[in-house]
Amino acid sequence: MTLGPVMVDVAGQELTADDRHLLSNHTVGGVILFSRNYHSLDQLEQLVKSIQQIKSPRLLIAVDQEGGRVQRFKEGFTILPAMRRFGEVYESDQKLALDLAKQCGWLMASEVRSTGIDISFAPVLDIDKGISSVIGDRAFHSDPFVVGKLSQAFVAGMDEAGMQATGKHFPGHGSIAADSHVAMPIDERAMVDIEMEDLRPFQFLIEAGINALMMAHVIYPRVDSQPAGFSSFWMKTMLRDKMHFQGAIFSDDLSMEGAVIAGSYIERARVSLEMGCDMILVCNNRDAAWEVVKSLDSYENPASSLRLAHLHGKQSVSRETLVSESRWQEAKDLLAKYVEDPSLNLNLSDPTAYI
Description:
The protein has one domain (about 30-325): Glycoside hydrolase, family 3, N-terminal domain (TIM Barrel, Alpha-Beta Barrel). Strands 6-3-2-1-10-9-8-7 form an 8-stranded parallel beta sheet. Helix 4 packs across helix 5, helix 4 (about 95-115) crosses helix 13 (about 325-335) and helix 5 (about 145-160) runs parallel beside helix 7.
């Protein structure tokens, strides 16, 4: 059996009978966890183990644990700075900023891996142009070169902790005010401008060996009429052929408003996979998840399954061992100085927010 092309969510803090039924389907290859799935470290570890035991190869388990506004697990985890803080430090002390980014990547990934989760969808490679509120301080900087340098350091830290990185949101969400969770963002720039700015961090990380990217639900009409996550041009012509990306391509959540233009859930799934995605996310809509899974019953893509299998977490240590390490405490102490508001509370009225 290989990993299927669909990533879904689960209802609560332990698996229900319907969760188990869905996850057992051969089309499902991954699970994404949200804040509602977390109560305590022990509970989370048990949930992860129960998901891992569903089938072999084990399902890929993911979470959005970027830092700043986007941190699904808080109590029992280190509260991490927003990535913009490292960009601010870079202005006066490049060496310190790069060290902070690397330590943050390592700390985030080490804590997540200690629970058994494979990947956190991070880092954000978008450019902060002061336009997009949904990106904002999730981005490292306004300069593509600085975004590339800091994100590479962050990814290096993740790698040391045994976690593969997922850069997002290709080819760039930073130049549009609209939020693709609730609207259809349109970026009117020409290709030359996108290449000179937004694509540079992605190319930098591709050349450095990043193994996964997530697409943006954004239309760039002067380049292609379809949102990037449904576009053969962006995924095949640009990512695969021109930029030589060999890793896994994730869709952003197909439940977002920015995906509606592609049609029904079944149509969104089919087009996204046909145009080049390796794994599609269908979150917070169980009926839609079942529709998609059933519609893909005969779908096979061995190359995609192989790319996805490479994303399973590598080495990890128990939380008890992790917290006994001097590096863990040193990283916590170092990064605590850059957390602007330790009481950050992501608005979970829309549980799909900020993928």
